[in-house]
Amino acid sequence: MTGLAASNRYFIEVSYKGTTFAGFQVQENADTVQAAIDRALSILFRDRIVTTGSSRTDAGVHALQNFLHFDTALPLHPQFLYKINAILPQDIVLKAVYQVPPDAHARFAALGRSYEYYLYTRKDPFMRDRGYYFPYRIDLDKLEAAAAIVKDYTDFTTFSKRNTQVKTFLCAIQESYWTVKDTHFVYNVAANRFLRGMVRGLVGTMLRVGRGRLSLEEFRQVIEGRDCTRADFAVPPQGLFLVQVAYPEGLLDRVLMQDK
């Protein structure tokens, strides 16, 4: 009598445009990125596949890189990448497949994540669903100073939306800075972890500094106040991109398929 084949664990790397989705995580009666990926995998394998994601993104938020893992004892088709992308919606692409140890976890193994938030100050129809149209004068020096201040802190209670179930509001910020090219402003931030709504809260509150409505000292007071009602979360989701998820060296060495 032959035993059942051992299950393998795979990490998959994806990119997506979040405009038409109700967020990343599977929700009842809503079209989400993860639901579309689970559906495509289940169709291809002709078996129910349930993925676990590394990072949840809100409705309208995009990802240049995100990861999920799933288990299956079934073999991967030689043209797996081509076939899965033919099934997936146009706004999602599966870029690579990695075989990983059976205990590797897409979310908990991640060492850090980086985000970018885009805003543009001159009307641009090509940026409408990929950035925040902000046609106001901005003091770049103050904006950059505010971004530098962010690195002085580890407690980001102020920038976490309410009704969150996290046990700690501590985050180790590795990068926090603005870059500017022509009429485009981009906030770049990297940390070991992020709280719900944190990047948009940081951007919205820093824009108050850049507009002269909040001094740099008052910005510090907002952070130190640990009160989310003092942060500005009102910037729209379409300007936010999950750019990279970092994993321990060697975890993703076994690349089975990759879209060059």
UniProtKB/TrEMBL annotation:
<dbReference type="InterPro" id="IPR020094">
    <property type="entry name" value="TruA/RsuA/RluB/E/F_N"/>
</dbReference>
<keyword id="KW-0819">tRNA processing</keyword>
<dbReference type="GO" id="GO:0031119">
    <property type="term" value="P:tRNA pseudouridine synthesis"/>
</dbReference>
<dbReference type="InterPro" id="IPR020097">
    <property type="entry name" value="PsdUridine_synth_TruA_a/b_dom"/>
</dbReference>
<comment type="function">
    <text>Formation of pseudouridine at positions 38, 39 and 40 in the anticodon stem and loop of transfer RNAs.</text>
</comment>
<dbReference type="InterPro" id="IPR020103">
    <property type="entry name" value="PsdUridine_synth_cat_dom_sf"/>
</dbReference>
<dbReference type="GO" id="GO:0160147">
    <property type="term" value="F:tRNA pseudouridine(38-40) synthase activity"/>
</dbReference>
<feature type="binding site">
    <location>
        <position position="115"/>
    </location>
    <ligand>
        <name>substrate</name>
    </ligand>
</feature>
<keyword id="KW-0413">Isomerase</keyword>
<comment type="subunit">
    <text>Homodimer.</text>
</comment>
<dbReference type="InterPro" id="IPR020095">
    <property type="entry name" value="PsdUridine_synth_TruA_C"/>
</dbReference>
<comment type="similarity">
    <text>Belongs to the tRNA pseudouridine synthase TruA family.</text>
</comment>
<dbReference type="InterPro" id="IPR001406">
    <property type="entry name" value="PsdUridine_synth_TruA"/>
</dbReference>
<protein>
    <recommendedName>
        <fullName>tRNA pseudouridine synthase A</fullName>
        <ecNumber>5.4.99.12</ecNumber>
    </recommendedName>
</protein>
<feature type="active site" description="Nucleophile">
    <location>
        <position position="58"/>
    </location>
</feature>
<dbReference type="GO" id="GO:0003723">
    <property type="term" value="F:RNA binding"/>
</dbReference>
<dbReference type="Pfam" id="PF01416">
    <property type="entry name" value="PseudoU_synth_1"/>
</dbReference>
<feature type="domain" description="Pseudouridine synthase I TruA alpha/beta">
    <location>
        <begin position="155"/>
        <end position="248"/>
    </location>
</feature>
